[in-house]
């Protein structure tokens, strides 16, 4: 597909400059049409077939690595991480390491464990909002049970070195847990290459789905270390009066999912596969190269760490130097149909593969 064909799949591109993918990927026509097709079977169920959960598992494994049976279907990132936090066995004196100012989905499930006597250790960020693997290495010991980190930080766009952090975690026997909400579908991830034990994510951002879709990856290496907390009819063999849990990630699934949304999501996942995550990431760097250059020329304050290209993603945070003028600029951009986010004191710009150089030029001219 060429650029015009890709943009035709995203109706919003005809109405606005959409730089808000870190909040929510815009609905594309492939997913929309798949959703309508599913709904038609609900109106006239004569031809209705049962939803095949394996379709999503297979697509996720092709995009993110691992085996299809290592993926459980969930409704959000937070649900996946919550299942893990409650399903692990902890004792008083154990500790968990997470970076400072992580997204709440990768903080609240672990912080609740303080009630059980588990210590939460926060790895310090650098002044430029990056985090070094050494910051985690300083905190880890033989009582560390989990090292949890976002593959891309929502509040800076920073991409940590997952390989190095996973190695540090495993040297002490800790589980390596990754929040992939801002990463899956935007940067290349291979759960096996990065030695990720557990990874949770959502469908409504870079994986081109809708709210209510998500996944939980649990490596077969660690599956026995986690107990399901909400086993439903899809977590075990269909045997009456006996619980015979599956021996793979399916054991973490509960009951019925929003099948209409998952069925439609398969079209979004296939689009990610067709374009290729490597190509999507290459486009992300090209986009942010232009944005960074333009922001620097106009002397805006860039909050995102940009010194190393391998730490960059499709997310750039910047501000004007004061909250008042930053808010005014945000309102001006929105008035000109540039869709982005005002996140506390910063403007967050997050373009995707369907955005063009012309759109970035327009955005920079408005600054």
Structure notes:
The protein is α/β, with parallel strands linked by helices and about 375 residues long. The protein has two domains: about 5-20 and about 275-365, Aspartate Aminotransferase, domain 1 (Alpha-Beta Complex); about 45-275, Type I PLP-dependent aspartate aminotransferase-like (Major domain) (Aspartate Aminotransferase, domain 2), CATH 3.40.640. The chain has eleven helices and 13 strands. It has helices at about 5-10, 30-45, 55-65, 75-85, 110, 135, 160-170, 260-275, 275-295, 325-335, 355-365, and strands at about 15-20, 70-75, 95-100, 120-125, 145-150, 175-180, 200, 215-220, 300, 315-320, 340, 340-345, 345-350. The strands form three sheets. Strands 2-8-7-6-5-3-4 form a seven-stranded mixed β-sheet, sandwiched between helices. Strands 9-10-13-12 form a four-stranded antiparallel β-sheet.
SSE blueprint and pairings:
Blueprint: H1 3-8, E1 17-18, H2 29-43, H3 53-64, E2 71-74, H4 77-87, E3 95-99, H5 108-111, E4 119-123, H6 133-137, E5 144-150, H7 162-171, E6 175-179, E7 198-202, E8 214-218, H8 259-275, H9 277-297, E9 301-302, E10 316-319, H10 323-335, E11 338-339, E12 341-343, E13 346-349, H11 357-366
Parallel strand pairs: 1-11, 3-4, 3-5, 5-6, 6-7
Antiparallel strand pairs: 2-8, 7-8, 9-10, 10-13, 12-13
Helix pairs in contact: 2-8, 3-8, 9-11
